[in-house]
Design a protein that fits this description.
Elements: H1 7-25, H2 35-54, H3 58-63
């Protein structure tokens, strides 16, 4: 797959992923006491971190979006 996630987008996704994982497992916020909500938010956080690490977003690929400079 072609790289389609730029640096700024990558940093934002990594930060969002880390925050979501923190909220799901370490924050103690009552909203995340439910198992479904906790693991749904954790899954989204993991996906954000994976996209940030690989620089490939499948949704961007479907719609033809690129936030990185062409090489």
């Amino acid at each position: 797959m072609t790289v389609n996630v730029g640096t700024l987008d990558r940093i934002a996704r990594a930060a969002l992923g880390a925050v979501l994982l923190y909220l799901a497992f370490l924050s103690g916020v009552p909203l995340f006491d439910g198992v479904i909500v906790k693991y749904a938010v954790a899954a989204i956080g993991v996906v954000m971190l994976v996209v940030s690490a690989t620089r490939v977003c499948p949704i961007y690929s479907i719609f033809g979006i690129k936030t990185c400079r062409s090489a």
